């Protein structure tokens, strides 16, 4: 991966990610999040992982869209546009805690990658290897995640059932 | 992009030509749509301007260009302008990554006193190793244009249209992806060119580890995955927002849905985006289930040998082969495009709850069952038991 491409994509990614949290309007935030995801997909593609890149587009672009709709339907945009992200003290504590955690996590790894040009070099895209690794080495984590997602789906159905809906059960 | 100036310039021209191919087929499709709908409904359709009403297209283009520019005063101006542009992108990118014919092989030759090495030009905008996954990922971005248009218009009807488009896309994308898994299991690849190569020759499959050949049928995906093909085609209709799935622009309820506030050239770009999606859907159907750019029973090499028999050089034979096979693929694509238009003017629109029921309670379970049964069968059939 050439350093020029890597640094330009990374700078764009950082800018978009900052805009996600700095935008006053939650809808603009959602759109910038989508742009950041697309940029991340480019980085994956440049790291010779085209499958991950495409899955990144498919999964996260769809997820951000759901968020977009949630924002549209749950926020009263005229009033909440300004007040949505200015929080009370409790929210501020959580904000600083999570920001601190993130900073610590990033700073512990920040200077350990010196060789940008070496990233992804010598690796060939191999879908069979990916599948084999997922289903042998990481089989437990994979299945556990599947179970977690199933739980979330069941929970969502249970929650929406009690509030009624368009369908009569 | 390429090793030298010749390869790079050819590749750039190729990308431009494929984009223009997508854009330029739209007026023709609009004409077919108008005349076709008229004949289906026992009318004449536009037949006054020029022969068969063909120059009506030019008149339309002039109308689109000179319409009054309009932006809703309280809308989001930037997003309002950006949405039609973004509507074009997914269709164009997805179409450019589908191979439209066999690759052209150019032998080494002399030009301008320099020797230019042998080249291989794929007959597509760009080659992605993961082919279909890339197309699915890109076309899932299509709904953003509708969402942005709906929200930027500052109009309740537009907003409803955008929300419907979004809900519909999320529901049908799952069925679309799962319908494809079956055929991917059989081909064992994500690459379009390899899929087309798999479908050469007569129908041949493994039964209990032994090869069975059916000489009177081509080796097309439709014979392995009829259910998957039907599910994919239905989900494609939903993805392109065409009747009977055009809830986002249901004119009886929502004026015109997400593009209520759009007119002129911006409206036209939404149109091009929609037809681009149709083109991608047709090309995918042809590539996955109907042999791609190959004629039934005739392999690419056979066509190449046939043209080489006329005394062409290897390079020329390769070029002629590529264009001949391109015509084959486009014939298949045009047939599917006609089905899109035919269905639009034949079936009524779904009710919204029917749409959701069809997506979640019918197509998704069937696609899941298709995947599981295909996986079991592929394992059973390809293992040698005796």
Notes on the structure:
- The complex is a heterodimer of chains A (169) and B (386).
- Chain A has 169 residues and is mainly alpha-helical.
- Among the domains of chain A are: 1-78, Up-down Bundle (Four Helix Bundle (Hemerythrin (Met), subunit A)); 126-164.
- In chain A, 76% of the residues lie in helices and 0% in strands.
- Chain A is built from 7 helices and no strands.
- Chain B has helices spanning 5-40, 56-66, 77-96, 131-139, 142-152, 156-187, 192-198, 221-224, 226-239, 251-254, 264-289, 300-308, 314-344, 352-382; strands spanning 104-106, 109-111, 114-116, 119-121, 202-207, 210-218.
- In chain B, helix 9 packs antiparallel against helix 14.
- The radius of gyration of chain B is 23 Å and the shape is globular.
- Chain B has a domain at 5-178 and 237-290 and 307-347.
- In chain B, strands 1-4 form a two-stranded antiparallel ribbon.
- The model of chain B has no long low-confidence stretch (mean pLDDT 82).
- By secondary structure, chain B is mainly α.
- Helix content of chain B is 63%, strand content 7%.
- At the A-B interface, helix 2 and helix 3 of A face helix 4, helix 5 and helix 6 of B.
Write a short abstract of this structure.
The complex is a heterodimer of chains A (169) and B (386). By secondary structure, chain A is mainly α.
Task: Name a few traits of the molecule.
heterodimer; A: mainly alpha; Four Helix Bundle (Hemerythrin (Met), subunit A); 7 helices; B: 386 residues; two-stranded antiparallel ribbon; globular
């Amino acid at each position: 991966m050439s350093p020029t491409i890597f640094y330009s994509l990374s700078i764009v990614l950082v800018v978009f990610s900052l805009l996600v949290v700095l935008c006053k309007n939650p809808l603009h935030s959602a759109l910038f999040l989508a742009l950041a995801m697309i940029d991340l997909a480019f980085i994956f593609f440049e790291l010779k992982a085209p499958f991950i890149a495409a899955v990144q587009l498919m999964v996260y672009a769809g997820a951000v869209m759901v968020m977009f709709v949630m924002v549209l339907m749950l926020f009263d945009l005229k009033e909440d546009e300004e007040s949505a992200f200015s929080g009370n003290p409790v929210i501020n504590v959580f904000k600083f805690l999570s920001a601190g955690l993130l900073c610590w996590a990033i700073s512990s790894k920040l200077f350990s990658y010196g060789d940008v040009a070496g990233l992804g070099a010598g690796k060939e895209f191999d879908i069979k290897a990916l599948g084999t690794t997922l289903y042998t080495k990481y089989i437990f984590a994979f299945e556990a995640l599947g179970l977690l997602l199933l739980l979330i789906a069941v929970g969502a159905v249970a929650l929406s059932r009690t509030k009624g809906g368009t369908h009569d059960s | 992009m390429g090793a030298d100036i010749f390869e790079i310039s050819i590749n750039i021209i190729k990308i431009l030509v494929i984009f223009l191919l997508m854009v330029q087929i739209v007026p023709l499709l609009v004409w077919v749509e108008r005349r076709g709908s008229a004949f289906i409904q026992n009318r004449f359709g536009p037949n006054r301007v020029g022969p068969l009403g063909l120059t009506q297209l030019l008149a339309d283009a002039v109308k689109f260009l000179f319409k009054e520019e309009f932006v809703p005063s309280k809308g989001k101006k930037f997003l309002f302008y950006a949405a039609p542009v973004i509507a074009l992108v997914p269709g164009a990118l997805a179409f450019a990554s589908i191979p439209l014919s066999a690759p052209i092989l150019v032998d080494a030759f002399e030009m301008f006193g320099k020797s230019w090495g042998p080249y291989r030009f794929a007959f597509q905008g760009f080659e992605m190793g993961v082919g279909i996954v890339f197309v699915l990922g890109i076309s899932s971005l299509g709904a953003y244009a509708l969402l942005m248009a709906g929200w930027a218009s500052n109009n309740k009807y537009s907003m409803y249209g955008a929300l419907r488009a979004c809900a519909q896309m999320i529901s049908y994308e799952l069925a679309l992806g799962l319908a494809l898994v079956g055929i991917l299991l059989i081909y064992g690849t994500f690459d379009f060119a390899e899929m087309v190569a798999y479908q050469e020759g007569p129908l041949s499959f493994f039964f209990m580890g032994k090869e069975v050949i059916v000489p009177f049928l081509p080796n097309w995906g439709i014979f392995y995955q009829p259910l998957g093909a039907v599910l994919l085609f239905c989900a494609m209709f939903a993805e392109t927002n065409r009747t009977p799935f055009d809830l986002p622009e249901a004119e009886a309820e929502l004026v015109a849905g997400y593009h209520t506030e759009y007119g002129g050239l911006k409206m036209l770009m939404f149109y091009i985006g929609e037809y681009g999606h149709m083109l991608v859907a047709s090309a995918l159907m042809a590539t996955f289930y109907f042999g791609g750019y190959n004629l039934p029973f005739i392999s690419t090499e056979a066509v190449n040998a046939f043209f080489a028999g006329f005394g062409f050089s290897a390079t020329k034979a390769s070029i002629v082969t590529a264009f001949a096979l391109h015509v084959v693929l486009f014939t298949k694509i045009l047939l599917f495009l006609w089905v899109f238009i035919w269905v639009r003017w034949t079936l009524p629109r779904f009710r919204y709850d029917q749409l959701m029921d069809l997506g979640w309670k019918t197509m998704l379970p069937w696609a899941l069952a298709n995947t599981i049964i295909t996986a079991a069968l592929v394992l059973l059939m390809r293992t040698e038991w005796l």
